[in-house]
Automatic annotation (TrEMBL):
Species of origin: Leptospira bouyouniensis
Family matches, as Pfam families: HxlR (PF01638)
Keywords: DNA-binding, Transcription, Transcription regulation
Annotated HTH hxlR-type domain residues: 10-109
Lineage top rank: taxon: Bacteria
Annotated InterPro entries: HTH_HxlR, WH-like_DNA-bd_sf, WH_DNA-bd_sf
Organism lineage string: Bacteria, Pseudomonadati, Spirochaetota, Spirochaetia, Leptospirales
Protein name, as recorded: Transcriptional regulator
GO MF annotation list: DNA binding
PANTHER family (alphabetical): HTH-TYPE TRANSCRIPTIONAL REGULATOR YODB (PTHR33204:SF37), TRANSCRIPTIONAL REGULATOR, MARR FAMILY (PTHR33204)
């Protein structure tokens, strides 16, 4: 939903209008894990997003300034997508979703291992992850 259109003044409703569907959060997840991605990278994700839905979600996330496009260093026909500071600020929400899912679902062992550090000191782990993501964003902005 574009920035100007709101169903209500409820902060949860307004937020969910932007990133509340599963595809948007999975795109954000992929960008957190891989820093920068191409359209093709998202299509290869295990969940199998349809190309029309991917295009729609990327446009919505870009219009709402959660992601931005960059020129691809190797191909003029491709673009890279990366999170903005606003998008990076969703990291604590994704961490909470991971912790909730670990409690109620079987999750891969490697993810379970990574969550151990988060559970020991969530605040520090989240702060460190966000700092790293913002540092990567700052360095990519310096290159522009």
């Amino acid at each position: 939903m574009p920035l100007n259109q709101k169903r209500s003044e409820c902060p949860i409703s307004c937020s969910l209008d932007i990133w509340g569907d599963k595809w948007s959060l999975l795109i954000i997840r992929d960008l957190i894990n891989h820093k920068k991605c191409t359209y093709g990278d998202f299509l290869k994700s295990g969940e199998g997003i349809a190309t029309n839905i991917l295009a729609s979600r990327l446009q919505l996330l870009e219009e709402n300034e959660l992601i931005e496009k960059l020129n691809h260093p190797e191909s003029k026909a491709k673009v890279l997508y990366q999170l903005t500071y606003k998008g990076i600020d969703l990291l604590p929400i994704l961490v909470e979703i991971h912790l909730w899912a670990e409690k109620y679902f079987d999750i891969p062992k490697d993810l379970k291992e990574r969550l151990k550090a988060v559970k020991k000191d969530k605040e520090t782990a989240v702060r460190t992850l966000m700092k790293d993501l913002k540092k990567d964003l700052d360095s990519s902005k310096e290159k522009e």
